[in-house]
Design goal:
mainly beta, six-stranded antiparallel β-barrel, 7 helices, elongated
Length: 862
């Protein structure tokens, strides 16, 4: 009996050991085996059930309780759960191992309300929730009162359901970009969009919000602004999309849509934006704009503004239709990209009446409408590593809105050779006139034409095109003698060649003087020489000790020189000719007049030149300076110049020019002056307004005077910054800004302000009986009324006509998430205003905005 029992037990043990061995070989299968004739045979295999969790759940907390029968784990206080790519931090977390559910909840207050949100971090993305359910098997989740940050915005939803890692659906959700609310500096946002449903699609590098009907709330007050739908892309990469316009109605242009368009990125370095303005009374504008950027190489912008302005009613006298255009191009090359080859462009070509005929009033507010001239330039510069040569190619276009003429230089090339010494130094230190002899030379090729707007690039323009070549050679040297004197010698040679010459004659039939342009190659060569001596003289006057002025120092730099050039108006040169004018008088003229290379000088010059430079400073007592003495500049420079021409047959003395520059009050007040004096007496015939210079020397009449003053004022110049904490005991905070309050509860803060004062006075006579006077005062400044209110403006007052010139007043207000601006031109020829309120955040700046502007026509009542 015992042997039988022992034998059966031994057989069972052998079966169990062998079965365990088979299980180790195939852990995913359970094997049933029976003994048949002392052998083991497999009857069938049963798949093992898959584990309910794909990864280990790590958890910790201050208090952990496990309910084994119910397969529940309860975590209290500072609870944390990590599973795969998700981490949950909360005050309370429960784990249901049977249903594969994780529940988390924030910290409760005494009333049972959550005051500290639970934190959920999945794949680097953070969420804040009141409560959170997560199914570890399906990876679905439901969150209540979840805060989700996306780029510049924040979404707070009553209920959020996560279907997978890419799709989230939110119910009764608020969206805002208020940074104060996002950073929890405020309990409620200053504005939000309330949507019934929001669907969020997340990608690897971007996400998109698809918003259903949404209503805008400002300070929790509903507004009439309702969006039927919205698609908000969040991405670090550029994406194409429609640009939302503003709309309105004006009497002169009708109903309008402004700024409707489309944005399209092109590759890695380009993007394109096309905007359009449409008006129901016929006006329209199309504005394409392309930006490009290649780091460390170049950047630029191309834009155009093409449109038609219609005013009045067709068929009536007030009807007008004007076509306008503007083409602009800016290109900048990085200085480190290629130092031997640089390219830059600043092109701005407009129609003659663009700035004062477009419906857009921005050109009035930025003062572009006051322009009288506009220049465009494209430049290509080539330098060489081994050659001392710089080649510059330029194309330029200059528009004069007053005359309607445009000057085109295309192309213009300059070849400049770097200055070099003609003779080598024997000792390594250059001394004497020969070793200091330098040569500067270059070649300039230019094609020039002055044409009207309608003739541009037509046969008429090409027929008037002039081509010219100029070469300039300048020789110069200097040396020092008698220790204190510098002696200089110089000579210049100008060579010119042109394709057009001038023939003048009087036409008795039409009774006019005719300028006939000939297609003829001609040239000239001229030269001049100079010699001068210069030194410096110092003088100082000292005053008694204790006086306010300690000393006055005067530095004088006198220079005297002689200039000689022959008379190139002689017949032997052939540069000048004569013709009989309408009065029968023989009148000389140059065949190079009105040409591109200029005209040779006429009349022999043997002139003694003089120039006296002055610098005057004084030392005054100063308590603010550590030395007790402070330097003040009376004149930074005061130059007097003129000449006496020994070869002149009449009026050998030239006009005397005096120019001065100085600054006062710690270089704040800048003063620039100029004065021209005629040493000869001027006589006026009875009834004539134009005078005649006589040979009577010594009258010294003022022919011109100009003075310009500029003084920038600011709050910093009138005392140090106040320490309000030491002055007022009460302190408060409004919108995260600190204020100090006095005993009457009035707030105090720094009111920064600036005011730039400019004054200009011009007096010009120029042989006329009555002088021309111009005097004006300009003001340009800003004032910070409060930390969030700012006023700025500019104006000019003409003291001669006693009228205000161009005046602009602007207001701006920082509304946390909003920006409010208002600009107004109340006086002058153009009277317009512009009002704007809009969201700061880029994601909504084009969608949520309001803009109102006047489209006042020139000289119309405001």
């Amino acid at each position: 009996m015992d042997k039988t029992v022992f034998k059966n037990i031994l057989q069972i043990l052998i079966i169990l050991i062998f079965n365990s061995f088979l299980a180790q070989e195939s852990p995913k299968k359970l094997v049933k085996a029976t003994i048949i004739n002392d052998t083991i045979s497999k009857k069938d295999t049963i798949p093992a059930p898959k584990e309910s969790l794909d990864a280990v759940v790590d958890y910790k907390a201050d208090d952990i309780r496990r309910d084994v029968p119910k397969k529940m784990i309860y975590l209290n206080k500072n609870a944390q759960v990590k599973y795969q790519d998700i981490q949950i931090d909360a005050d309370y977390i429960s784990i249901d191992e049977d249903k594969n559910l994780i529940f988390a909840r924030g910290k409760l207050d005494s009333l049972g309300k959550v005051f500290e949100w639970a934190q959920v971090n999945q794949a680097g993305k953070k969420y804040e929730v009141e409560s959170f359910n997560y199914n570890t098997k399906t990876r679905e989740a439901i969150a209540y009162n979840a805060r989700t940050e996306e780029s510049e915005g924040l979404i707070v939803a009553d209920k959020t359901k996560k279907y997978n890692d890419s799709i989230f659906v939110m119910r009764h959700a608020e969206f805002t970009t208020d940074t104060y609310y996002i950073e929890k500096k405020d309990t409620r946002p200053d504005y939000h969009l309330l949507a019934s449903y929001i669907k969020m699609q997340k990608g690897k590098e971007s996400s998109t919000l698809i918003v259903g009907p949404a209503q805008m709330y400002i300070e929790d007050v509903p507004t009439p602004l309702i969006l039927p739908f919205a698609i908000l892309p969040f991405s670090s990469k550029r994406s194409a999309g429609i640009l939302i316009p503003s709309f309105g109605e004006r009497e002169d242009v009708g109903f309008f849509l402004n700024g409707i368009g489309y944005y399209q990125p092109i590759g890695e370095h380009f993007d394109l934006k096309v905007l359009a303005d449409i008006y129901t009374k016929g006006s329209w504008t199309v504005r394409p704009e392309m930006n490009y950027l290649k780091k460390y190489r170049y950047s630029g912008n191309f834009s155009a503004d093409i449109g038609s302005t219609v005013r009045g009613i067709k068929g009536l006298d007030n009807y007008s239709k004007t076509g306008t255009y503007r083409i602009a191009w800016r290109h900048t090359q990085d200085t480190k990209a290629n130092p031997f080859l640089t390219f830059s462009a600043s092109v701005d070509v407009t129609s003659q009446t663009f700035y004062n005929n477009t419906v857009n009033n921005n050109y009035i507010l930025d003062q572009s409408v006051l322009r009288t001239q506009q220049n465009s330039t494209v430049t290509l510069t080539k330098r060489f590593l081994t050659l001392p040569v710089t080649i510059t190619g330029t194309a330029s276009y200059s528009q004069n809105f007053a005359t309607g003429l445009s000057d085109l230089r295309l192309p213009q090339m300059n070849v400049a050779i770097n200055q070099f010494y003609l003779f080598k130094s024997k000792t390594g230190v250059r001394t004497g006139l020969l070793e200091n002899l330098t040569v500067n030379t270059g070649l300039n090729l230019s094609n020039f034409v002055s044409t009207e707007e309608g003739e541009l690039f037509t046969d008429a323009m090409w027929d008037k095109l002039q081509t010219g070549i100029k070469n300039n050679i300048a020789l110069g040297t200097n040396t020092t003698f008698a220790k204190y004197f510098t002696f200089s010698l110089g000579a210049t040679i100008d060579n010119a060649l042109t394709t057009k010459t001038l023939t003048k004659y009087y036409d008795p039939v039409q009774n006019i003087e005719v300028d006939q342009i000939n297609k003829q190659i001609a040239g000239y060569s001229i030269f001049s020489t100079t010699a001068s001596v210069q030194t410096q003289l110092y003088g100082q006057a000292n005053f008694k000790k204790g006086s306010a002025i300690q000393a006055i120092r005067h530095m004088m730099t006198p220079s005297i020189g002689f200039t000689y050039s022959p008379d190139f108006g002689g017949e032997q040169f052939g540069y000048f000719r004569n013709f009989y004018n309408a009065n029968g008088a023989l009148t000389p003229y140059s065949i190079f007049d009105k040409g591109i290379v200029g005209s040779p000088t006429t009349g022999m010059v043997g002139a003694l030149n003089y120039n006296i430079g002055n610098n005057i400073e004084m030392k005054v007592r100063s308590k603010s300076d550590s030395t007790g003495v402070k330097k003040m500049k009376i004149f930074e420079s005061l130059n007097i110049s003129g000449n006496y021409n020994f070869a002149a047959k009449t009026h050998p003395w030239s006009i005397i020019s005096i120019n001065g520059q100085s600054s006062f009050f710690d270089n704040k007040l800048s003063v620039n002056t100029s004065l021209t004096i005629d040493p000869y007496k001027i006589l006026f015939a009875p009834g004539s307004d134009t005078g005649i210079r006589t040979e009577d020397f010594g009258s010294f009449s003022i022919q011109g005077f100009n003075v310009q003053l500029s003084y920038p004022l600011s709050s910093e110049l009138f005392g140090e910054k106040k320490e309000y904490s030491k002055i007022y005991s009460q302190k408060g905070e409004i919108r995260n800004e600190n204020y100090f309050f006095d005993d009457d509860n009035y707030a105090h803060f720094d009111q920064a302000w600036t005011l730039n004062v400019n004054a200009n006075y011009q007096y010009s006579r120029n042989l006329t009986r009555t002088a021309t006077k111009m005097a004006s005062i300009g003001l340009d400044g800003s004032l910070k009324l409060t930390p969030y209110w700012n006023i700025n403006g500019s104006t000019h007052y003409d003291m001669v006509t006693k009228e205000l010139a161009y005046t602009r007043i602007g207001f701006s207000r920082d509304q946390r998430s909003f920006t409010i601006t208002f600009n107004w031109v109340p006086f002058g020829q153009y009277k317009v205003y512009d009002f704007f309120i809009g969201i700061k955040a880029n994601i909504l700046s084009d969608a949520l905005k309001y803009k109102d502007r006047s489209f006042t026509q020139p000289n119309a009542p405001f």
